[in-house]
Amino acid sequence: MSTSLDATMNRLREPEGDRTALARRMMVCLLLILLVTAVLSLGSGATDTSASSVAWALVSGQDHLISAVERVIIMDIRMPRILLGMMVGACLAVSGAVMQGLFRNPLADPGIVGVSAGASLGAVSFIVLGTGVLAPVAALFGIYHVPFAAFLGGLMFTFALYRISTRSGSTSVATMLLAGIALGALANAFTGMLIFRADDEQLRDLTFWGLGSIAGATWPKVFAVAPIIVPILILAPFMARGLNAMTLGEATAHHLGVNVQIFKRLAIVLVAAATGAAVAVSGGIGFVGIVVPHLLRLMIGPDHRFLLPACGLLGAIMLLLADAIARQIVAPAELPIGIVTAAIGAPFFLWILLRRRGLMDI
Amino acid sequence: MPIQLIGRDNPSRNTMASFLVFAVTCLSALTSATAAEQGPQRVLAIGGAVTEIVYALGEQDRLVGRDSTSTFPPEANGLPDVGYIRALSPEGVLSVKPDLILARENNGPPEAVEVLKSTGVRWVDVPDEFTLSGIDENITIIAAELGVVDKGEALKKKVAADIARSRARQAAQGEAPRVMFVLALTDDKIRTSGRNTAADNIIALAGGENVITAFDGYKEISNEAVIDAAPDIILMMNGRGESADHEAVNALIEAHPALSTTPAVRNGRIIRMDGLLMLGFGPRTGEAIAQLSDALAGHEH
């Protein structure tokens, strides 16, 4: 399978030939940029912290070298935030790339499997009813009941969507797209009813949740989502061959030896779980899942073997940068990160569209 | 129990801080005179009414920050703004290096507040009550925290006297004017105040009657319900941004299918007041009642 597939991929490659070396160099660059960005993020924020106090906070548990508050800022506020940001960014970008490959549509985003609509319905339910009807459930999960509800809502929606679009063991990608739109509308209807019931403060909370933020990053959140997101990020590159085959169409992929049905199921489950976890802890962060894969396809080509790991790295970088901007542009207040990613992402998206038009004007 | 000291997360780190706070509290109880010098020196006020009370107590020199809802007195706007009361950022709050955080309840998000409480910086929740007794309680708490109990007592007397004077003036008026509070008018949808809100309470205190009684809180209501309620007066907050152009908003109201039928619009009785003054339930509530009752009675300011 692999030889015939590689041969096909080689035929697909653009005339300028082998991009492998370029992709490898790119990966190393991205890794370095990510490390630098992470270190700089740890040292910067609304509070001035010196490089030495960051170093001491990392290596020593003793309090005579830095103040207790400084330690909290570096270790309990910035550190979980950076880890969460990297995980969320990587996961959104990789999920985006996987969905675009699976649906053979460069504009598919992780939300396409219904996970975002379901997650926001789950979150909104608890923001509005968490003090009323759902209070006992909310109490069960303490201050984390909203993220938990978002995660569950996302998974339930994806499951429903999958059931709807699967007939006698084969999943229709087209049906999934359409059913996703219908289910999204249904979720919006329920969300609308809840918004009607919401009081003023709840409305503000809803708005802020929808704008996305990783300001509420805490260690418990990191520990809650890491076991879901990290294994999926590690598994994702193993889907590269299957995705490369899928870009040629399902029938061709089948002839190349890919078990298309199992592959689709796996991809959808992984993306739903990862995106569900990401949306649960960060709310609505848009565009990362579309912009990052696009940018990389332009730079290193469509081969998923390089695209997926590169997406993970660049997604993490993008979110860290967006978060750094969000944290410092209006300090000591902060912007919801969704505003930053959308403000950067939307113009970029338009540019891509215009560029595609230019290419298609034959 | 509105006041809490959180030190559970990390006993070893917080014992010292808790002990210090405890010592300071004891000291301030013993010697109220020196307390102002000994008490917290870097105070962060979160919530419009909280900030106003700190200013009214004359302790504004100790303020190092505020939230975006704290817009009065005007000089408060010069303080660093740590963001919206329900969207606080832990590091942003800590960056002003507070040793006391006075926060109106209804703050958030919960996980950010949890992190802040675990730092050992004293965090005091000030009850979010839109009533006269709530104002008293808030002044008591804030004055005690700042170690200026005597000033607090004086301020409470002053506020109570203001409110009593404002309410005495309206005693002679006849029938209570029927008022509808309009919180927002977005693409012709009307968000109004039902029962148990700051708006509902201030209307009652100013001698008016809130015509919307079918629900609690602020909600959108249907055009038919507006026509049915037929308010004599429409009460709104001074607009900000786009809605600062009151003429334009009034034109919208006059063109609105339901609002245009109300006696209020037919007689041109649309009253506006500063939002924080009217709904803040802080030390200026006496002034708010006086202004609103004058406006309801048709006196110009």
Automatic annotation (TrEMBL), chain A:
The chain crosses the membrane at residues 81-99, 111-135, 141-162, 174-196, 208-236, 266-294, 306-326, 333-354. Signal peptide: none annotated. Its main location: membrane. CDD domains: TM_ABC_iron-siderophores_like (cd06550). InterPro entries: ABC_BtuC-like (IPR037294), ABC_transptr_permease_BtuC (IPR000522). It comes from Hoeflea ulvae. It is found in: Cell membrane. It holds the Pfam family FecCD. The keyword Transport applies. Keywords: Cell membrane, Membrane, Transmembrane, Transmembrane helix, Transport. Belongs to the binding-protein-dependent transport system permease family. FecCD subfamily. This is Iron ABC transporter permease. It is a multi-pass membrane protein.
Automatic annotation (TrEMBL), chain B:
The keyword Transit peptide does not apply. SUPFAM superfamilies: Helical backbone' metal receptor (SSF53807). CDD domains: HutB (cd01149). Residues 1-35 form the signal peptide. Keywords: Signal. The keyword Signal applies. Residues 42-300 form the Fe/B12 periplasmic-binding domain. InterPro entries: ABC_Transporter_SBP, ABC_transptr_periplasmic_BD. Pfam families: Peripla_BP_2. This is Hemin ABC transporter substrate-binding protein. It comes from Hoeflea ulvae.
